Amino acid sequence: MKPSAQNTLTIAGAGLAGALLATLLARAGWQVEVFEKRADPRSVGYEGGRSINLALAERGLHALRQAGLHEAVLAQAVMMRGRMVHHPDGHTALQRYGKDDSEVIWSVHRGRLNLLLLDAAEAAGARLHFHARLDRVDFDAKHATFVDDRDGSSIGHAFDVLIGADGAGSALRGAIDQITPLGERFESLGHGYKELEIEPSADGGFRIEPNALHIWPRGRYMCIALPNTERTFTVTLFLPLQASDGMPGFDALPDAAAARALFERDFASALAHIPDFDADWAAHPIGQLATLYLDRWHLDGRAVLLGDAAHAMVPFHGQGMNCAFEDCAALAACIAGADDFAGAFAAFQAQRLPNACAIQQMALENYLEMRDRVDDADFLLQRELERLLAQRDPERFVPRYSMVTFRRIPYATALARGRVQRELLVEATRGHTSLADVDLAALDAAVRDRLSTLDPD
Ligand code: FAD
Ligand code: E0Q
């Protein structure tokens, strides 16, 4: 489809996906209107002024490249070469993510990234409306009502096409679901999260290694920390909502003192760097974690969902935003390539829904791996062999983490190939404690037999 003056694309939500999609579509020549329930963060500062950061990887970076924004984003990012594991005895070990510094991920500031994307959307010609929460939709009349929550006033808006980039609690999803059931299922993880902050050191430097994603795995729960350009770190505690069998849970931490006791016992090396622990604990709410599955993402050619509104996932692969950005590029391409919006949205769903399910599953699996496998001997031996096989046959054997993080092959392909690779690793290391006695020639043959070569990309 070619953009036309009659066709306005209306986007609900000016978060990460909404703002990038607005940029891509406006740059392609479409008239774009974006409605966001919150205030313009460029005038009020992002909520609470807290630094929340996210890991940006190749998929997200590639979509930003398509909008010409990757350099500006990377200029504000901190490189992370690997995960720095903090063991209970206090020693640390860096597990590299990729083969060298060409395979790294980036810690970006959510609020700042959002500002940059909003500026880009506006510069590309999109019209942004703030204090405008999508409230009701009349799909027959193609009329939407947006409410300003400051005073309850509302404005009506006639739309041609409505795009829902309004996050996990999507109002557009609720409205479509009333017309055509979307098959919505939320699966709560039963774990929540809380954010804390590591301040710069007295001399203004980073208190711990800046170029890493820090992780304190403790079996059923863990902490992570991502670096910020201002030399702070945002720490996130992931913990079951309910305590059980002597295991801690948020419900058994009534106040900051109880939380501090948990940190003194299990995360002492993190606590030492969190000067405002009690204030942080009291001020920050407990976040919920869940996976959202839908059977359908669109209502013929009138409305479509993307990003968290379509497929919220648990954050343990650091791919929610990356997947949402990949959705934006895919939707823009489907709109450009189809004859009408119904065709574009059907193609988008067909392409993206199976891949969203695949990353949702891999993100859940990564939680188990993060919490209780990063320091387990079998796992480390498998990882060592994985790296070796990746060196011996780099066209065929690409670690699943790398396929997800450094490549752009469909997530579903990464999941399927990862399964084959896992089988090979488990079979080859069974009963072994070192790689010295693994039959590598036989394994090379098995790799050639069971894995096709992967497109370089
Ligand atoms: P959102 O960012 O939620 O944006 C939705 C926007 O819509 C918001 O601005 C909201 O105000 C607005 N809105 C909501 N309702 C309405 C309405 N009715 N009308 C108008 N506007 C509305 N992803 C990564 O890639 N890497 C990471 O390291 C990572 N870490 C994470 C850590 C945690 C603890 C969590 C919870 C998530 C993490 N994610 C990460 C996932 C990432 O945050 C999301 O996938 C991403 O924000 C999705 O973008 P979105 O634009 O779809 O939704
Ligand atoms: C990444 C980068 C919130 C979060 C974000 C992440 C990652 C993790 C653990 C978490 C996965 C990993 N990871 O280190 O394997 O790669 O984004 Cl908890």
Provide a brief overview of the structure.
This protein has 457 residues and is α/β, with parallel strands linked by helices. It has helices at 16-27, 41-44, 58-66, 70-74, 110-123, 171-179, 256-266, 268-271, 277-283, 308-311, 320-337, 341-372, 377-392, 400-405, 411-429, 440-450, and strands spanning 8-12, 31-35, 53-56, 78-80, 82-86, 92-96, 105-109, 127-129, 133-138, 143-148, 153-158, 161-164, 185-198, 213-217, 222-227, 233-240, 287-293, 298-299, 303-305. Helix 1 (16-27) runs parallel beside helix 11, helix 12 runs parallel beside helix 15 and helix 15 (411-429) packs antiparallel against helix 16 (440-450).
Topology:
Layout: E1 8-12, H1 16-27, E2 31-35, H2 41-44, E3 53-56, H3 58-66, H4 70-74, E4 78-80, E5 82-86, E6 92-96, E7 105-109, H5 110-123, E8 127-129, E9 133-138, E10 143-148, E11 153-158, E12 161-164, H6 171-179, E13 185-198, E14 213-217, E15 222-227, E16 233-240, H7 256-266, H8 268-271, H9 277-283, E17 287-293, E18 298-299, E19 303-305, H10 308-311, H11 320-337, H12 341-372, H13 377-392, H14 400-405, H15 411-429, H16 440-450
Parallel strand pairs: 1-2, 1-12, 2-8, 5-14, 12-19
Antiparallel strand pairs: 3-7, 4-7, 5-6, 9-10, 10-11, 13-16, 13-17, 14-15, 15-16, 18-19
Helix pairs in contact: 1-5, 1-11, 3-11, 7-9, 11-12, 12-15, 13-15, 15-16
The structure holds flavin-adenine dinucleotide (FAD) and ligand E0Q.
Flavin-adenine dinucleotide is lined by residues 12-18, 35-38, 54-55, 133-134, 165-167, 171, 193, 236, 287, 307-309, 315, 318-322, 324.
